[in-house]
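Contributing: when you submit paired examples, paste them exactly as shown. First protein:
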Amino acid sequence: MCRRWSLRRWNSQSSESVYGNALTSIEKDVAATAVAAKATGAAHKNTNSTSTAHDEERQNFRPLSLLLNARFISVAILLSTAAAFFVGCVARIFLLSEFEILPLNKLHILDAEISLVEGQAVKFAPRQLPAPTVLPGKDVPYTTYASKTFQVEGSATSHTLHIDRRNAAPSTSSSDGGDSHCEEGAVPNTSEYAASLSEDEEGDVHINDYSHNDDSDGLHLPAGQHLLVDIKDVDSAFLNSEERLASAMVELISESKLTLLSYHCHSLVPIGVSCAGVLLESHVAFHTWPKEGVITMDLFTCGGNPLIPVLPSIRNLFGVPRTPAEGEDEGDIPEPTLLWSHKLRGFRDGFAPGYDRYRNPLDTDLGQFVLGKLDFDLKEEILSTKTAFQNVDVYDVLNPGAKSMDSYLKSLLNDGSYESTHPEQFGPDRILFLDGVIQSTRYGDAPYHESIVHPAMITHPNPRRVAIIGGGEGATLREVLKHNTVEKAVMIEIDEGVVELSKEHLPQWQDCSNIAHHEKCAEWCFDDARVDARFEDAMAYFIDNFSDDVEHEEAAYDIIIMDALDPNDDIEFAVELYTSDTYIRSLYNALTSNGILVVQVGEVP
């Protein structure tokens, strides 16, 4: 219709133009074509009626338009996003429960709560973890920070905290050292730190001032200390609380006088927490198993400050006893058990001029055979101090290969069992170390001291005067006093501090209460009237009184027992005791004509 109307209009407008004749001819042709088409359409009227109807509908169709404002579009996007998020969360929950990662009966979506241990629940609410802080007066250099967090299904929450410098002292570090980190001096003043740890509330000395890696001298050795700690029977709710664990870690580092630059914690699915902290001195990290009541931790520092004094703080902060369940007797709940190991790490030989491992107690017997062992059922520091001459350490250890922990616990009861009536057979071994070298043990006391004393005392026909060189713990003197022929027992020990410390911490070594056959005996061996304890240099004493070129005013001895350091220990002073011709000659001169010299020469090859 439109086309025919256009042709007619075009024809009426152009009939008077110069092209009129041509247009008239075209119009006639079109009309003829239309007549022919009409005839054809009549012949196929029935078959083409549907097509004609569709053509007419298209001709009459007009497109529809819809106007949407911005508010409607925004609301629609938000609603569709929320719906998609909800569907995704529900799908994730069902998928996790399908693979038994997150039991559905333990999850409460409405109050965002997950039941971790039966009868207990932990909120997944926004956490406010404590930020690391700078110790007052401590100089902390500025550092750069880089991190990468990977989103995994096993992590429920993730937090990273950085040091709060608002209370930090202004930096005074310079290019010549003084910063308190691994490469620029981990301890600005190690002696002050050791002093702050070395006295308890009563003023007693508590810890050796080991200087094995004192960075205050500017050496900055590529070395450090590693403390590994395992604790069991810990409260499960504490082990699953990211906030409480993070607070304990921050407090531990503060009490240890270290600097925590930042830390990162994850609460895990379904339970457990893992944390790692970056120290100015190195790192601290731990992981927990709440259901099993176990936490494992490691602390590494590259400074000279000793780490062993940190153990009481670790026990107090992380060894939280289990909360009694309903109807459970509090007395039946075991105390948390702490196993630990301390190791020296890195390299000292070749980097520290003049470094001698035998002068470092942590690098000798003490470090190798006690501190470095993690499998002892019990390892407890009884004493760690320093006298005017040497380091003194006393430890109680229970080696599972030699003693049973169950038998030891039974021996502490008053139940009439064999263990409780013979506790001396099941207790831990007590070990004395001087400058880190083993000197005596509880279970080795009798075999060693009896063998060094009695063969010579029995061999001599009438031993009346006996000299003991060393033997500050008192056990050699105890064995000598058991012989009723003894009239004088002279003990020459350079370190009176060892005698006093042994009296308090090794009373069994100096116990003479079972010697009842002599009228001059006493319960404490050094109170025996026959004892003459001289606290002086034994080598100087014998050279001054019994060398070849002096007049011998001192009376000679029937027995001389040299209970000194082991020559195999490679200690300079100990070697001199066994190699000085002048000293050995003076010992010979100090003996009576049938006198006997007893020398402890170390282990048999």
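Second protein:
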Amino acid sequence: EEKLLWLYGVNEHITDLDDAVVKSFQATGNLHADFAAFCKQHKVAGHPVLMPTASEVKPNPNDASDQNEEEGDAQKPSGPPTLALQAAMLDLLSLKVLKVVMPSALHLETVRISGCHLDAAMLAALRTCFTGNSTVTTLHLDWNPLEMPYDQESLQALAEAYRIEDVQLLEQKREQGQADRVLQAFKEQLEVKRKDVSEAIAAVAEASAPRFPSTAMMEPLSIERWMGAFSDSLGLSCEDSGRVFHVLDKPEYGPADGYLSLEFLQTILGELAPPEDDTGGSKPPASATPPPVFPDIIGSTFAAFVEPSCTLEMVSLRCCNICRLETKAIASVLATSSHLRALNLWGNRVCDRGAEYLSTALEYNFGLLFLGLGKNLITHVGLEMLCKPLGHTLVQEKAEADKLMKAIKDQEKELEKQKKAAPAPPKDGNGRDRYVAPLRTDACREHKDGETTYWIWTRNDVLKTLNLEQNPISDVEAVEAIQPFGTGSLVLRSTPCAPALLQKRKESGHAESAEPEEGSSGVLNGGAEGWKLILQ
């Protein structure tokens, strides 16, 4: 029998799957065996990383040769609980086949896709796998940065009309949009490192030519000196600074001779138009309903994996080059997510503005137990915003407390209505109850400390771990002010403030935690334990 060999592009003549074949396909429940059987039936070259091994090959009801198998030999479909794909060059059609066979693969619990560089269309196809009866609860989509997607429909229409010049213009527009995103993200990185872009670039100039400060800004730098200067002065990775160098070293911006000056970079960054969503850093007023979903051509692709209709409970998006715009799109959907337990955004470019968006989401999301933001660009400013809706808040004015307690009574009435109208807990294909965010209300309790009366307003006490390790958080006083009002673990390993906090812990004699004993610090927190600081 002739077998189809998979090579990249071998399936390009198949634009979509035949609906009749999809409907008639009888799955066995083993992911790899079903993938191979569907590819054979549809005459698709199956990707080798998704094809079954010899030990996984079982009789398939779609093969005529297997129709005479005795019924007594039929067993409950089984397979490995994890699908792991690493550095595999996948094609869109393979993801579409997965969409057909994955819902019936009830043995599957975890999908790990690392370094496969799936594009937006592939991720959209992958997202459709996690609905309905899907038993997959955990998705690791790591080291998968996205670029501006191609407008396939417009490209196809222009190509069919032989409008080649318009095709080139459309591609130039896409490339310019991608360049603007890269430059805007880099500009925000510089603003994190210093007060503004000018001060940051001045620091780089001093590092690049310390003996000639007057001409350092104008000196053409090779990519090696460019990356070295940004690394030495600001601690920026060669990946980030090198990406910007490659963007600017093109004919659209200059001679493209392999050299750039810092003066040129400052001019380009200064001419960037502010993002359409830029509100000058002002946070919208609090509302009883979550903010509207923020549409972003790249961010919305990632956000689809945390939206309410997605059945995933744990999502990891490590090292996906998620910056402010992508974070805003993810946070706007996270606010209404109902099944998500954990979200890991380690190793991205989330800044203080991004932390502000996530803080807004945490005002409405009461199901998330773990938020991983390690190795991002968050300072003590972003930490304060993230912690604001979490745990407890001190209220010292009676008028404010009365207003809160009145709002809480309305919440309690609404909660009773929700409990009565709540449907039965949804189940996956194996009959397991899916995780659903608990129904709850805020609380506001009165406390007395001598002659002082105060109130503690408790909002989101569901989140148990906030991981901010390897972020540029250096303000020890800010951390100490936040600590008494938390309700879980705050991970600050490898941050600039960690050594000073550890030293204070040793001096105070606390061997296990940095929390003060009740009543010893003079902090009005209603006797709460506060954040458990993880410093090493």
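If you have annotations for the second protein, write them as plain sentences, like these:
The radius of gyration is 27 Å.
The mean pLDDT is 89.
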